[in-house]
């Protein structure tokens, strides 16, 4: 019994260390890559929304229903990933209270989280456009310059 408890304690210790990797000051992660991933997730959400409309307008056989479910799940997963990136990377680590642009950055980060939530709630392609705009607004607030990404729909 003691051996089992000790094994469980060791497992929990290593599990929390592995999950916390992105919040240690390792310097591996880069802001530019995070923004590029946010935009890639947004682009996937946009494509999923368009696919949902295409499938919904056609015949609904078992395969179409299967694809509908898969596109919905994809949209949800990418919206959640955006929210996680904003909270775990930007809010927890990168946006600092002592920054002169703190309130502007905080507001912009919140707008991305809300826009991602609205993408989950809706299949309207306008929500993905709003999400994209909010990501660019966060970039402006965070970097203090205009975005220069190779990203288009």
Commentary on this structure:
- This protein is mainly α and 153 residues long.
- It has a single domain (31-143), classed as Up-down Bundle (Four Helix Bundle (Hemerythrin (Met), subunit A)), CATH 1.20.120.
- It is built from five helices and no strands.
- α2 runs antiparallel to α5 (125-143).
- The protein starts with a helix and ends in a 10-residue tail after the last helix.
Short description:
With 153 residues, the chain is mainly alpha-helical.
Please mark out the parts with pLDDT under 50 across 5 or more consecutive residues, or reply none.
8-21
- Major sheet, described briefly? none
Average pLDDT for all residues: 86
Order of helices and strands: HHHHH
State the share of residues found in helices, binned by percent: over 70%
Instruction: Supply the CATH architecture.
Output: Up-down Bundle
Structural class: mainly alpha
- Give the CATH level 1 class: Mainly Alpha
Count of runs of 4 or more consecutive helical residues: 5
Calculate the terminal CA-CA distance, rounded to whole Å.
Answer: 58 Å
Number of strand segments? 0
**Strand residues, percent:** under 5%
Taken from the alpha-carbon principal axes, the silhouette is elongated
């Amino acid at each position: 019994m003691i051996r089992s408890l000790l094994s469980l304690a060791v497992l929990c210790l290593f599990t929390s260390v592995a999950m916390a990797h992105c919040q240690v000051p390792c310097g591996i992660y880069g802001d530019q890559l995070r923004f590029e991933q946010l935009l890639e997730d947004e682009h996937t959400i946009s494509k999923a929304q368009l696919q949902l409309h295409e499938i919904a307008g056609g015949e609904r056989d078992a395969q179409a229903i299967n694809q509908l479910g898969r596109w919905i799940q994809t949209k949800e997963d990418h919206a959640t990933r955006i929210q996680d990136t904003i909270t775990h990377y930007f809010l927890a680590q990168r946006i600092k209270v002592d920054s002169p642009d703190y309130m502007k950055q905080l507001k912009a980060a919140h707008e991305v989280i809300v826009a991602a939530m609205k993408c989950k709630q809706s299949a309207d392609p306008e929500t993905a456009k709003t999400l994209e705009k909010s990501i660019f607004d966060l970039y402006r607030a965070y970097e203090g310059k205009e975005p220069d990404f190779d990203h288009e729909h």
